[in-house]
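re the bet — no i am not wrong, look at it urself. input seq straight from the record:
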Amino acid sequence: MNDPTVHLTQLGQRADLPASPDAAALETVPNPHPGSLYVVRFTAPEFTSLCPVTGQPDFAHLVIDYVPRDLLVESKSLKLYLGAFRNHGAFHEDCTVAIGKRLDATLNPHWLRIGGYWYPRGGMPIDVFFAVGDLPHGLWVPEQGVAPYRGRG
């Protein structure tokens, strides 16, 4: 039997944080159920990037949902990719949409959405949503479950 993980370069070994999102390798594994429709969810509640103007840190809670076709994203490579934004300067909208587009290009899913729930800077939270494809009929997808920002109350 062929090992579907033999080509992976990060899983199971030390892997340094990529220098930038563009330098990060998003790795995939075959979908073990390519004929079934189901949702995969990744949640990154401690996502960070840098403001491209001030260099100050920005924080977000990301929720990524997708319906795979033939490929799944390997989770360690996704964590390293998201971590590569830590020293990357970009606006909230750019980070969120770039992640969605990179996953779409890598996976070619039936459907993908990303919710970027950004914490306030300058007194205003910014939530960014991106989706591609059509959600297959009859497939249950839970709400992303991130409450709107309410401040301290």
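see?? The chain has a mean pLDDT of 92. told u. also Strands lie at 28-30, 40-50, 57-67, 71-73, 111-118, 127-133. so pay up
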